[in-house]
Amino acid sequence: MHRHSRPTGASRPILARVMLPLVVAAGIGTVAAASPRAEAQITFSRTARADPASQETIAEFPVGESGGLEPRKGTAWKVHYARGLHKGLYITGAWYRRNLEEDWIKILGEVRVAELFVPYHHSSYIRYFDLTGFSFPMAQVREEDAGATGMLLPPFPGDSYPTVVREVRDRGVVWKDYAHGVRRGRELVIWGALEAGNYMYLMSYGFHDDGAVSLRLGSTGQNLPGHRGEAHMHNTHWRIDMDLIDGRRNSAMVMRHVEDPAGPGAEDLEEPFNRGFEGGIDWDPREFTMVRIASDRKNGRGDTIAYDLHPLRMGSSRHKEEFTRHDFWVTRAHPERPLENIFSNLPNMVKDEETIELADIVLWATSSAHHEPRDEDGKPGSGPKFWPGDDAWEGSALVMWSGYDLRPRNLFDRTPFYPYTPGPQVAAGAGGTPAATDEPRRSSARSSGPEAVPADERPR
């Protein structure tokens, strides 16, 4: 079974990709033959290649851009990004400033797509691992990709063309009240496209002015030749290494909302993820399941600084593969292990059941887009034929998005960008230590790297 790309120009070669039920074992995979009945198999070994060096982009969000009377001068993000084989576009670090006069706070370590798993519903032998199973490249981006307000970021070292777009977008109303009117938000977005045979996968990372982060995967392109009308899943498996403030002392928690069917009451529960050990859990729409990554730091009001992972989803995708049996997994970070970064190896990674409290941990999460083909995806017989038996398909499936939002909890002591009446500073924080505050702080030396917030200090 072959999966073909559609040429976009006369000189572009046709790409093919074979069906790949990946079997991970000591870095070796197995590719099934094209026919489901064929007994022959092809083995491959993956050759390690160094990714190009990370690049940096910085965006500041001055208060004046959105109006208001807030005395602080704005916020900022500093983002390191890279592209790699079997990774696509990914984040290698992100730091945030709650005030343009303060030091950087570490928010993210490495965040990326760990796998793109595409199983078909009726042709059960078609199960693509679009990220790790093939050596698909990042697509070239052009001025029309960037739009009126975006820009093309410079090519990575060794690349002959740009593959990443940078945009600063309006993200709509973030608060509105009677006293002070309204404030609109802004976000820095960097995105690129993985050219996966007949599909394009848009990998997008958004960094909001209020400290939130959005992770999005968009599926677009042409439906599978020979299976144009067959429904399938686009499962995006994310690997999220938060490294919040001091990434060596993060904990994973689960938030559940439980309704009382016998009465009007309800309760919101916070409990350790999988009892505080490595493992996987399921998303329950009735409980609004949410995973929280908490640091060991507190803000000026004595509340724990954390980030909540909010799913943007309609359902959960379950398949015969064991790594699809849960929606969320948490593991200890073990970069020295050769298979540590492979999503399909998760069931083996959690067998040790190491503690995930006050540790360097990694959150794995799945977002799925169910593609039920429709006429808007395209039309056969209207385009040129490029090979014998080609159905002359013309058109492209409109983008189907899935993903998550990472929203800060207690990172600020109060509503960001709100024009508060000037008042006294918050007193000492918990335990008599200096309070973390989002008020302006001047420093004679401004740090620009990951050590901007020492481990023995509270974030300012």
Can you describe this structure?
- This protein has 460 residues and is mainly β.
- 2% of the residues lie in helices and 40% in strands.
- A 10-stranded antiparallel beta sheet has the order 11-12-13-14-15-24-21-20-17-18.
- The protein is globular, with a radius of gyration of 24 Å.
- GO terms for molecular function: copper ion binding; primary methylamine oxidase activity; quinone binding.
What is the strand and helix layout of this fold?
Blueprint: E1 2-4, E2 16-18, E3 28-32, E4 41-45, E5 55-62, E6 74-84, E7 88-97, E8 105-108, E9 111-119, E10 127-129, H1 143-146, E11 151-152, E12 165-177, E13 181-196, E14 199-208, E15 213-221, E16 232-240, E17 251-259, E18 266-272, E19 279-281, E20 290-298, E21 304-312, E22 328-332, H2 346-349, E23 361-371, E24 397-409
GO molecular function: copper ion binding; primary methylamine oxidase activity; quinone binding
Modified residues (2',4',5'-topaquinone): 199
Biased composition (Low complexity): 423-437
Summarize the structure.
By secondary structure, the chain is an all-beta fold.
CATH structural class: Mainly Beta
Q: C-alpha Rg, in Å? A: 24 Å
User: How many strands, which pairing sense, and closed or not: the largest β-sheet?
Assistant: 10 strands, antiparallel
CATH topology: Beta-galactosidase, Chain A, domain 5
CATH H-tier superfamily: Copper amine oxidase, catalytic domain
Query: Which series of helices and strands comes N to C?
Result: EEEEEEEEEEHEEEEEEEEEEEEHEE
- Number of individual domains: 1
